């Protein structure tokens, strides 16, 4: 059985941590959140094209550090790539 990707921000014990119908997601590639999805439902186009700093327990700065992810402009609507970590 193939497991659906985990959505960023879902809890490890969530019964359904995968994507939900009718919602918009971007895949996170590279870095500490590789393979997870971020829900962007309701985000403005500016927010989506800016990307996000996401809290992660696995950053280069330890728990609570942030991983920067941004869109791949050559693939609109495609995955967000890891840009590095920040405290």
From TrEMBL:
Source organism, top-level taxon: Bacteria
Record's keyword terms, sorted: Plasmid
Disordered, as annotated region: 1-33
Protein's UniProt name: Dioxygenase
Organism expressing this protein natively: Streptomyces glycanivorans
């Amino acid at each position: 059985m193939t497991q659906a990707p985990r959505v960023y921000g879902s809890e490890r014990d969530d019964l359904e941590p995968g994507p939900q119908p009718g919602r918009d997601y971007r895949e996170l590639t590279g870095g500490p959140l590789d393979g997870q999805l971020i829900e962007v439902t309701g985000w403005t186009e500016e927010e989506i094209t800016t990307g996000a700093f996401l809290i992660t327990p696995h950053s280069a700065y330890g728990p609570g550090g942030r991983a920067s992810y941004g869109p791949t402009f050559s693939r609109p609507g495609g995955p967000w790539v890891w840009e590095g970590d920040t405290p």
